[in-house]
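Structure (tokenized):
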């Protein structure tokens, strides 16, 4: 009678041989691990006997391939740090690091999912590239064409030309949404319910942080039945492409930037006419602003859209109330475009409405968030990197946003600036004459006036753009 452990190894090795002969996926079923509670559940029935040495060799190759896939999903940032910790290899009786059969299966499925999403990203990039000119033309016509408000419509640009979202950005967005909509609601729910007896999405920030720490400290672990939930969210079906496409709501990004000498209400009238007539298929409206700051589309107008077109989702939660005062009217649009064969394809478009002055402030402010996000603001351009270093902007941002008192003061400064802009743009504002332009010193941050005030950020951004043009192509 064959020893059960030897039999398991033979079965695993045989399955690998079969997989290789059929030239299918790298790993269909990993070698069984003696440390797994129920190793038999994760093994194939052997089709032909092999020697013990050969079985051991093939099992090692399988583990090597799984390690490769594990590094792949880490590199592509498919899972969060906590989920990757749960999938870390275990030590067997000899001290070697190996993956359990359950882990191996999940890692293999995750690697396939990454490949799938990368393919979706390339497909969507191609769709955006092929349709962007048509979309811009159509929406300009909705705003009266080039002779009217259509001339204020701007698209996302790359190398001076209108550009849709690129494959890398699309992939990153898909992965972010996959984690938000699938991993957090399914996997993190497991631990949230064990620790707090309620869903993860209902936890406050502190509770969520404690759940993550409990995972990283090894206080909570995945049980065998939990892997089925992993398999559920990693299985790819026909609906997954449409889900992924719906997550990239700004495949084509457009902005209606209204100058000071134009009337914002006129832009809203163009939108209302197009929405009510069915020429513009708006699916979602987010009227971002802060308390006591006028939104760009009035509440009454947005409610009219909602009442007239029931399918429109009106975001009314605290998500649109930005403490720092960020203000814009953001609309998600599903726009029909005919391809060269006459077939109608629907493209996801994000349209933002804002003033010229506020757009300028929003653009330069974004440099702060790029630094906090750890992005390479120097773009691998030595001259640009040296310039940013000379301004001390990175040091200043990290100092301010790592001290709660300073961060709160700077957020108050941002909100005051947005409020000042909107008050001066709105003719009905009674505070126009008494409301003066905010100064960073007034918020107790005078030491950062020459680097983090909006005037200083504008100066830094202007110089940086010159350096990008002058030295970017050379590097």
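Design, position by position:
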């Amino acid at each position: 009678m064959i020893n059960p452990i030897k039999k398991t190894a033979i079965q695993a090795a045989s399955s690998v041989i079969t997989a290789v002969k059929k030239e299918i996926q790298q790993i269909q079923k990993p070698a069984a691990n003696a440390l797994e509670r129920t190793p038999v559940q994760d093994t194939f029935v052997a089709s032909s006997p092999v020697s013990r040495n050969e079985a051991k060799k093939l099992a090692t190759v399988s583990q090597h391939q799984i390690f490769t896939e594990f590094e792949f999903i880490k590199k592509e940032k498919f899972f969060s740090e906590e989920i990757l910790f749960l999938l870390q290899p275990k030590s067997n009786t000899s001290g070697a690091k190996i993956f359990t059969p359950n882990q191996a299966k999940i890692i293999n499925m995750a690697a396939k999912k990454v490949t799938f999403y990368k393919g979706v990203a390339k497909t969507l990039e191609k769709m955006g590239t092929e349709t962007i000119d048509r979309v811009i033309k159509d929406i300009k016509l909705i705003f009266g064409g080039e002779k009217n408000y259509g001339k204020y419509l701007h698209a996302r640009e790359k190398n001076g030309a209108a550009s849709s979202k690129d494959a890398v950005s699309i992939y990153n967005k898909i992965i972010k949404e996959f984690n938000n909509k699938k991993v957090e609601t399914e996997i993190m729910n497991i631990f949230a319910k064990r620790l707090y007896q309620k869903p993860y999405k209902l936890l406050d920030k502190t509770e969520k942080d404690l759940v993550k720490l409990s995972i990283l400290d090894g206080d909570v672990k995945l049980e065998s039945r939990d892997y089925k939930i992993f398999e559920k969210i990693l299985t790819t079906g026909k609906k997954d492409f449409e889900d992924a496409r719906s997550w990239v709501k700004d495949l084509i990004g457009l902005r209606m930037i209204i100058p000071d000498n134009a009337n914002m209400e006129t832009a809203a009238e163009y939108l209302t006419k197009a929405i009510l007539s069915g020429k513009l298929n708006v699916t979602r409206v987010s009227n971002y602003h802060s308390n006591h700051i006028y939104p760009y589309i009035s509440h009454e107008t947005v409610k009219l859209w909602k009442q007239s077109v029931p399918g429109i989702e009106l975001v009314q939660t605290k998500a649109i109330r930005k403490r720092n005062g960020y203000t814009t009217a953001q609309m998600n649009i599903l726009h029909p475009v005919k391809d060269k064969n006459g077939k109608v394809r629907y493209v996801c478009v994000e349209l933002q409405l804002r003033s010229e002055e506020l757009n300028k402030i929003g653009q330069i402010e974004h440099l702060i968030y790029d630094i906090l996000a750890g992005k390479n603001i120097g773009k691998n351009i030595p001259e640009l990197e040296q310039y940013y270093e000379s301004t001390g902007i990175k040091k200043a941002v990290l100092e301010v946003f790592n001290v709660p008192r300073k961060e709160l003061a700077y957020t108050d400064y941002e909100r005051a600036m947005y409020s000042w802009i909107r008050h001066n743009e709105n003719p009905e504002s009674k505070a126009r004459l008494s409301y003066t332009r905010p100064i960073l010193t007034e918020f107790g941050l005078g030491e950062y006036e020459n680097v983090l005030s909006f005037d200083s950020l504008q100066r830094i951004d202007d110089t940086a753009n010159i350096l990008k043009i002058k030295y970017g192509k050379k590097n």
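Reviewer-requested clarification: The chain has 16 helices and ten strands. Residues 126-164+250-355 form a domain with the Beta Polymerase; domain 2 fold (CATH 3.30.460).
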